[in-house]
Amino acid sequence: MRPHRDVDLEAPYDAAFERCRAAIEFVLGASILVEDRAGGLIEAGFGLVNSERVRCSLAKIDATHTGVRIEALFAAGVEVPESSRNVDALAAALALP
Tell me: the pLDDT tens digits for 43-70? Predict the structure, then answer.
């Protein structure tokens, strides 16, 4: 299983999407590779070949809450670690008020 964390945000969907996008860029320093607001998906990478990528999958819980799953993605054939500093850092940033 890939390293992942689940975070529930007390924020409407659009605000949560922007919060995830900003945290990926400013906390991780990653580049957004895929941004699909309607599909609830953001993928980001770090510019290195075969390096870790990060995916945020967002789901509206209700009008004021959004669930976010943060996952680390790795190239085929790469040994997948049990944890990811990037996933943990992004989850910590999103958990802040």
Answer: 999 877 668 999 999 999 999 999 999 9
pTM: 0.92
Classify 62 as helix, strand or coil: strand
CATH class of 4-95: alpha beta
Cβ-defined contacts of 7-11 (< 8 Å, 24+): 7/67, 7/68, 7/70, 7/91, 7/94, 7/95, 8/61, 8/65, 8/66, 8/67, 8/68, 9/65, 9/66, 9/67, 9/68, 9/94, 10/64, 10/65, 11/64, 11/65, 11/66
